[in-house]
Amino acid sequence: MRTRPLTVFAFTAVAVLSAAAPAAAHGDTVHLDVTGQQNGRVSTFATWENDHDPVTGEFTGTLSASAADGRTLGPWRLVTVPGLPGTYTTREALPAGHWRVTVDCAFPALGHGEGELDVDAPEITGPEPLGTDGSARSAGVTPAPLRETGTAIAPTAAPVSAREVTPGHVHATTSGATTWAAIGTAFVAVVLVAIGLWLRRHRG
Questions:
Q1: Both 107 and 13 in a single domain?
Q2: How many distinct structural domains can be found in the chain?
């Protein structure tokens, strides 16, 4: 009866030790290597210190970079590269220049790595350069000349400001007022002459 509990304990111990053996074989430290870059995106390879197996599964790491001119970038989060176990990169890209890169891992174990690399300016593969007339110019192809439609475009008159309009309007109003004033003066003079003649006749 006593041998049964001992047997169960032995099997349990063996199971626990068997499960812990692979984890112990990996070690408790992650080794990080800066392996290169593509279009400014740095790649890092993470392995276990003891058996050099790729670090897969849940991973938490960051990347920082500094240039000789004082520029610093990061920390940026490291993300898994699909199809490449143990390889990580960033969603952000380094600009052109010479960079000293530092990578750190916090989970599943601590790890650290450094490296230096050069990032070239990206090649621009956009549309063909424009010609003098604004049209795209391909190699060996001369752009066709623009055809004239024969329709003359009248020049657009410059906008007239309020200051330019106001004096003319005031001048027209002043001329009309002067005319009416002259008519009123003549009418008053005629009335005065008529009154003078009427008083002269009555006195006579």
A1: yes
A2: 2
As a whole number of angstroms, the distance between CA 114 and CA 66 comes to 11
Alpha-carbon distance of 146 to 93, in angstroms, equals 44
Tell me the whole-structure pTM to 2 decimals: 0.51
- Distance separating alpha carbons of residues 49 and 113, to the nearest angstrom: 12
By the 8 A CB rule, do 113 and 44 touch? yes
Give me 196's structure tokens.
């003078």
Residue 168's pLDDT is: 42
Residues spanned by the domain of 36:
8-119
Summarised one tens digit per residue, pLDDT across range 184-204 is 676 767 677 778 777 777 765
What is the phi/psi pair of residue 52, to 5°? 60, 25
Q: How far apart are CA 73 and CA 92, in angstroms?
A: 10
Q: What is the DSSP string of 12-60?
A: HHHHHHHHHHHHHHH-SEEEEEEEEEETTEEEEEEEETTT--B--SS-E
